[in-house]
């Protein structure tokens, strides 16, 4: 059911973008107003969310480690898995952010031969995740040829490498294929396994379907239903130099693509996609496991009113002496 | 707010990265903008192109690709133009007959949109030789 909600929503958005941009007079809305609103929502939304997260205290280290903590000098410790200082923590964060190390440890439980429980490592999710994120990055960087004028040299290098095999004209980019394949896998993964389908929400399907729609419209625009590229660049450079213009004769597929990207940007801060910022704020990843070396004081501890034994004895000394109880410090004894 | 030092530095870095395209366009160190290209007005205006302008703008590369395959792989060198004339499927001989200047015609849009077609890996772009260059060339020939 959640899949159908997401699918219907993406279809509605597609129809809105496709036909809305063809209505006379609405092109400035789809080409200028909505992209700006989306970009501002994206930036402000992420800042607000991160500031909200930063209000939660993290009083105690959560060492969900997979390695030996640093303790006695003769016990070999694992620096990256259970870091005890800042440099090792940075190492662990780099592995997490650039290589999704936590996901690499993904395992799958299966029951074999009737009653035998088997845990096996499964890397497909990690592989598809890596493929998706890195091709998305390359595609975003390639888009700099539309974002800025003149195009930086690194974009040309990426284009040449990406179209290395020179298949077709315009040259077919490898990342386009890998991107669409990876997103399709991530979507099918949720549908194929009944357990994963059961825990999948509309918020899981919607971004995947939206990304698939964005990738498909981009691919169609490059290879099939072409648009006026010069006009497209005039529009995007205008947008990103804060002097928006709407050139005539850009195909409606471009406005659809732009509209879907605007939807993604505006949706971003309110969705699971916030893991982009969240990965930096994961307490189990970004805090050193030094619980036994440093005292961590809970910031919301109230001041405990203490009544140590010395004060207790001062208060009841006479009574205690009268009852014949032993005293730690007896001023009368000391006088003698 | 906890760890405000890290949070604020992180957010500043985030905003700077996201707005790179805007800051690049506004304060680009390299101020020599390419700008929206304007195509040259052809000296032989009035002659008809093999296809309409609306087709050529987005699809010229498909046509050239098709011609390349026809000529190189099938030996099919000729086609009929819009006015019934026989035309050779050739970039250098047919297209560049009218669109003679690569720099003013091909390169303007290609540079603006950062397209680097591999036509010129095989084809030699016709260069316009100035009279002075020609004179020097002739002199050298005579010296030899």
Structure in words:
The complex is a heterodimer of chains A (336) and B (144). Chain A has 336 residues and is mainly alpha-helical. Chain A folds into 2 domains: 2-304, Transmembrane di-heme cytochromes, Chain C (Fumarate Reductase Cytochrome B subunit), CATH 1.20.950; 305-336, no CATH class. Chain A is built from 16 helices and 2 strands. A two-stranded antiparallel ribbon of chain A has the order 1-2. In chain A, a hairpin with a 3-residue loop joins strand 1 (107-112) and strand 2 (116-121). The termini of chain A are far apart. Chain B has one domain. Chain B has a two-stranded antiparallel sheet. Chain B has 144 residues and is mainly alpha-helical. Chain B starts with a helix and ends with a helix. Chain B has helices at residues 4-18, 20-27, 53-74, 91-98, 106-112, 119-122, 131-143, and strands at 78-80, 86-88. In chain B, 53% of the residues lie in helices and 4% in strands. Chain A binds chain B through residues 42-43, 46-47, 50-51, 54-58, 144-152, 155-156, 159-160, 166, 168-170, 226-230, 233-234, 237, 240-242, 277, 280, 299, and chain B through 1-4, 7, 10-11, 14-15, 18-19, 21-22, 24-26, 28, 30, 32-37, 57-59, 61-62, 64-65, 109, 112-118.
Which structural category fits the helices and strands of chain B? mainly alpha
| H-E order of chain B | HHHEEHHHH
Element string of chain A (H = helix, E = strand)? HHHHEEHHHHHHHHHHHH
* Separation of the first and last Cα atoms of chain B: 84 Å
CATH architecture of the largest domain in chain A: Up-down Bundle
Name the CATH superfamily classification of the largest domain in chain A: Transmembrane di-heme cytochromes, Chain C
Residue stretches of chain A low in confidence (pLDDT < 50, at least 5 long) are: none
**Percent helix range of chain A:** 55-70%
Range of helix content of chain B: 40-55%
Question: Would you count the extended β strands of chain B for me?
Answer: 2
Q: Tell me the quaternary state.
A: heterodimer
Arithmetic mean of pLDDT of chain B = 80
């Amino acid at each position: 059911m959640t899949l159908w909600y997401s699918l219907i929503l993406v279809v509605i958005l597609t129809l809105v973008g496709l036909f809305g941009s063809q209505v006379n007079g609405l092109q400035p809305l789809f080409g200028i107003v909505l992209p700006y609103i989306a970009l501002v929502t994206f930036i402000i939304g992420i800042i607000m969310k991160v500031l909200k997260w930063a209000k939660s205290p993290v009083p105690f280290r959560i060492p969900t480690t997979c390695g030996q903590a640093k303790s006695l000098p003769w016990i070999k410790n694992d620096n990256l898995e259970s870091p005890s200082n800042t440099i090792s923590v940075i190492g662990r964060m780099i592995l997490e952010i650039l290589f999704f190390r936590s996901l690499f440890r993904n395992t799958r439980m299966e029951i074999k031969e009737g009653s035998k429980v088997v845990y096996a490592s499964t890397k497909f999710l990690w592989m598809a995740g890596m493929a998706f994120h890195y091709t998305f990055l390359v595609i975003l960087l390639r888009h700099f040829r539309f974002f800025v004028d003149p195009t930086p040299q690194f974009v040309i290098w990426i284009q040449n490498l990406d179209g290395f095999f020179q298949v077709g004209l315009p040259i077919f980019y490898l990342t386009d294929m890998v991107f669409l394949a990876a997103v399709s896998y991530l979507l099918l993964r949720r549908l194929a396994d009944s357990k994963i389908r059961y825990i999948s929400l509309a918020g899981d399907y919607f971004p995947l379907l939206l990304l698939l729609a964005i990738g498909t419209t981009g691919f169609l625009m490059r290879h099939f239903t072409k648009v006026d590229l010069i006009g497209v660049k005039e529009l995007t450079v205008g947008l990103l130099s804060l002097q928006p213009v709407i050139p005539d004769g850009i195909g409606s597929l471009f406005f659809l693509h732009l509209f879907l990207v605007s939807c993604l940007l505006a949706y971003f801060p309110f969705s699971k996609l916030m893991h982009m910022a969240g990965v930096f704020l994961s307490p189990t990843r970004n805090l050193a496991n030094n619980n036994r070396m440093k005292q961590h004081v809970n910031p919301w501890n109230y001041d405990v009113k203490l009544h140590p034994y010395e004060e207790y004895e001062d208060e009841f000394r006479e009574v205690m002496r009268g009852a014949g109880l032993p005293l730690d410090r007896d001023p009368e004894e000391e006088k003698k | 707010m906890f760890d405000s030092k890290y949070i604020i530095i992180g957010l500043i870095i985030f905003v700077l990265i996201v707005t790179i395209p805007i800051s690049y366009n506004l304060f680009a160190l390299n101020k020599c903008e390419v700008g929206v290209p304007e195509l040259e007005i052809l000296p032989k205006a009035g002659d008809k192109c093999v296809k309409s302008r609306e087709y050529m703008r987005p699809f010229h590369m498909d046509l050239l690709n098709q011609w390349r395959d026809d000529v190189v792989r099938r030996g099919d060198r000729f086609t009929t133009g819009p006015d019934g004339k026989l035309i050779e499927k050739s970039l250098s001989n047919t297209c560049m007959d009218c669109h003679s200047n690569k720099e003013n015609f091909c390169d303007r849009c290609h540079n603006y949109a950062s397209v680097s077609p591999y036509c010129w890996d095989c084809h030699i772009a016709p260069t316009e030789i100035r009279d002075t260059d020609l004179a020097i060339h002739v002199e050298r020939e005579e010296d030899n």
